Structure formats: structure tokens, C-alpha cells
Amino acid sequence: QHTTTQDAPGYPAEYAERYRAAGYWRGETFGQMLRDRAAAHPDRTAIVDPGPEPGGEGRRAWTYGELDARADRLAAGFLEHGITKGDRVVLQLPNTAEFFEVVFALFRIGALPVFALPAHRESEIRHFCAFTEAVAYVIPDVEAGFDHRALASKIRAEVDTLRHVFVVGDPGEHTALRDVAREPVEITDGPRPDDLAFLQLSGGSTGVPKLIPRTHDDYIYSLWGSNELCAVDEHSVYLCALPAAHNFPLSSPGTLGALYAGARVVLAPRPSPDVAFPLIEREGVTITGLVPPLALVWTEAAAATPHDLSTLDVLLVGGAKFSEEAARRVTPALGCRLQQVFGMAEGLVNYTRLDDPYETVVTTQGRPISPDDEIRVVDDEDNDLPAGGTGHLLTRGPYTIRGYWRAPEHNATAFTADGFYRTGDIVRRTETGHLVVEGRAKDQINRGGEKVAAEEIENHILAHPSVHDAAVVSMPDDYLGERTCAYVVLREGADPVKSLAIKKFVRERGLASYKVPDRVEFVEEFPQTGIGKVSKKDLRAAIAARLAPAQ
Ligand code: J2J
């Protein structure tokens, strides 16, 4: 059976057969996985949610049995609300126990969570709801000072497929999630292992974020494959410090990997040391994952902390390039092992191995999970480079998508004809097969792990009446690695505009705040390449030179 659906190209039959025969695809679904764990060890703790102010009141711990039962009851309630297999549900929850209750309820039905991030705002949410024709949107009431209910009301008025808004907390004019649960019902037509499980978000380089269709089979492989390489087993305690919906803390090995292993997940409401360190001590955390800027903050804070971090065994760092210098500080400061991870929501995940030589761990971004992850390093014309050459990373394998969801035109260029995904990353492969990330070809800014698609921001700036043209590029930053700089050409005769006004304009269009340009530079015209395109390379060089300390 070819798993192609009308919405996304699936794995060709010969590959699906191969991945099954090799034992990568185990024929499991997430719904059944939780059922099995709950049957095997109902009383073991699955999720610890310390509440918004850890250490205070409000710690909740759900066992596997409870999580399973809650997922059943919520699934029954969702079904009663008319949510069925294949429906899309935009999910925007912070790191709370309800995140998992909702996700597993949807998995059981076969409805597809769309993993929005807490930072997303009107522009992104409208797109996710409208583009996926979502039937429901799940939100917290007020989070980080932002009232999600008001946004939901607005989106609901605009998107007619959106029939339900479920709120964790005070529902306002919407439906309280706590009122949805019903007596469990038997679900006979749940999803199959090769069906889609959810839509993950692409970091993207185009005008709007692309959606990534992942199947139960392929994603579950990435989980147990990660568990083996990160030594996650039933004794592990995984701290989810990054936003739970992001692919890294979800799957590398992440919360879902931990649940697959029968381990314990501890949710951190914020990733800062003042919240995370006491949690590590109190809950006996053994493993967690961080983006490079946070890893640096943790290593700096560790020296002065009164908290005992001795249970922490492995710190995964990825999402953006971790400099060798910073990597060398991790073990001395935190007393744990470092594991670099270079992954992507589209699939391929690379890890340094826990038994790799230390030099490999601090100087490379790891090697693929699977023996069947195919790696090509090519030049601009797709010719394979000789061993050790630096070029574009292309990949194909048992958990890498063959195309984005409902994006045939984009897929034609984002994938090769024979199904390799063009990652947009520039890498070099060492003799041991480890990858070193050397740069990026895609038009994206990696703001300390948060991805900003240049074109998306340019489109928003171009909507400003005084703006003639805009080009967004990265600029170097000590803390985040990169920040965004927007170069702007004003219209002839337009009133002068200040940087702040451009930033405010973008913010008011309802964008996640990490996408608001960090800096705006006004110029008369853009430098051009030989064929008359905007030379972003020259713009990047110009802003880098400007920021460099005077010699
Ligand atoms: C350099 N660049 C990196 C690294 C990701 C695990 C870890 C990370 C992600 C992730 C993920 C990098 N060094 N160590 O999904 O499961 C950049 C690359 C890559 C892009 C993917 C996971 N780790 N990157 O970051 O989908 O440019 O996934 O193509 O958000 O992040 O971004 P994203």
C-alpha cells in the first residue's frame, strides 16, 4: 500500500516495506502505545506538572493509568463535539499536563493536532486555522499576560470551519476543557500506524510556515531510536524545559520518547535556572534538552546555585549551532554529559553518541539515528561532493517526510525527484560520519533556535505604506548566535519613518514577538547580485561590519 494521501506525498510502497521489514516501523499508534504502558505499569508516574510557580501549591502528578483514562474520557468528549478522524485541531498550550491529555485524546480519535507555539499570535494562528481548515482551537485562558480567548474569538469569526474553542482555565465565551470529558466510548475506527498523527511546523523560509505531516509509524521510530542513543529507559526523568510543542522537546527524545520508554516527564513552566534547577533537584531529573543560549545561561548559573544538580546525567543541546567553546563548558559546569543534537521537524535527527570521544562531542553535531538515514552532501548543482567536502545536506529515510502538507508547488523544489529533502543546511561530514553544521543556504534566521523565515517578515514590512522594499537578514549576536536585521528602502517622497515605527507596525500585525526585527536599517537601495537579485550576502556583511567593534 502506498501511503500517499491527497494532502501529502507519503512513503513509496517499496520504502514503506523496507522500513517495516527492517523493524523501524513497528506498527504501533500513539493511542495504543499509551494503552500498553498504562496496562503494564498503571501506577507509575507519567507526567509531573509543578504548576505555574514550582515549589508552591498546585503540583500535579498523573500516573500512566490516569493519563490513559483521561485521554479516553476527553476523546469521548471530543467525539461528542463532532471531532472525528482526520480533523485538524490547532493546539496552543504551554507546558502543562493538559497538553498531553489533549494530544493523546486526539491521537486516539485520529484527529490531527497542529502544534502551534505559545509565542504565536494572530497572524500565525489565523494561518494555521484557515489553512488546515481546523475544527477546533485549544488554548490557555491567559498566558504570559496574553489573553488567548480574545484572539480565539476573532479567529473564530473569520474562519468558518472553526466550530470549537476549548480553554484550559476560565473559558470566557468559549468552552472549558474541563467540561468536555465524557464516559469513555469504544473507538473502532481509530488511526492506523501509517496514518498521519499530527502536523508539526516547519521553521520555514517562505512567506507562511509550512506544515509537516508525520505518521505514527515514522515518528514512533524517531522516539525509540532516540531513546536508545540517549540512554532513556523507565528510570529516566525527562525535564521539558523548551516549549512542549516544539519537535526537539517533543521527540529528541523528548516527552513522547520518555513516555514511550515508560519514564517520567517533568514539565518546566519556564526554562530559566531559577525555575529549572530547583525542579531538577526536587524531581530527580536525569535528562533534558536546551537550545544553545539557554545552555550557556545554565552553565553560568550552575556555579552559584545552591541546588543539587547531581541527578542530571545528560544535557542535549541543539536547535542552533553550539560553538565548540560553549560546548566545552557544559560538563565542567553542570557535571553532566553533553550530547549535541542536530534535528529538524521534517525528520532527520543526528546525535553525538554517549560513547563518542569527547573531542567528537564538542566539535560535531552528531550522526543520524538510523542506518537507513541516507545522507548526501552536494554542490549547487546537486552533484555529490567528495568525502569531507562542505555542501548542501540532502536526506531521505524512515522518519523524514516526502513532502509538506498541501504544498505541491513548494514540494517540487524542497525535495529532489527521488524524494530527498533539501534541508537548507550546509554541512561537512567527518570520516566517522558525523556532521558539522557549517552554515545555511535557506533564507532563514536562526535566533538561538527560534527560526525566522525572512520572506514572512519581509511581507509584513512591505505592507507598511511608506515601505518600498525590505530584506531581512541575520546579524551576529553573542547571546543568540544570530538576530534579525531588516533592511528597508522607503518609498520616494514618503515621510521619514523611524526604526521603532517599523517594529511596532510588525508587532501590531500580530506576529510572534521573536519575529519582530531586532534592528531596522534604512538604505537608498539594496546591493545586487550579478543577475540583479538583492544580495543578502552583502547585506549580512554590511551589518556584521557595522556591529564589529572598531579595530
Ligand atoms: C546547527 N543547526 C541546527 C544544530 C537544528 C532536535 C533538535 C533540533 C530540532 C530543530 C529538532 C542544529 N546545529 N545542532 O527538530 O528534533 C537548525 C538547522 C535545521 C533546523 C531545524 C529536533 N539543530 N539546527 O531545531 O525544525 O538549520 O528543529 O535544519 O526547529 O534547525 O529546525 P527545527
Automatic annotation (TrEMBL):
Keywords: ATP-binding, Ligase, Nucleotide-binding. Pfam families: AMP-binding (PF00501), AMP-binding_C (PF13193). InterPro entries: AMP-bd_C, AMP-bd_C_sf, AMP-binding_CS, AMP-dep_synth/lig_dom, ATP-dep_AMP-bd_enzyme, DHB_AMP_lig. It comes from Streptomyces albireticuli. CDD domains: 23DHB-AMP_lg (cd05920). Residues 35-405 form the AMP-dependent synthetase/ligase domain. It comes from the Bacteria. Signal peptide: none annotated. The keyword Transferase does not apply. This is (2,3-dihydroxybenzoyl)adenylate synthase. Residues 456-533 form the AMP-binding enzyme C-terminal domain. Belongs to the ATP-dependent AMP-binding enzyme family. GO terms for molecular function: 2,3-dihydroxybenzoate--[aryl-carrier protein] ligase; ATP binding. PROSITE patterns: AMP_BINDING. GO terms for biological process: siderophore biosynthetic process. Pathway: Siderophore biosynthesis. The keyword GTP-binding does not apply.
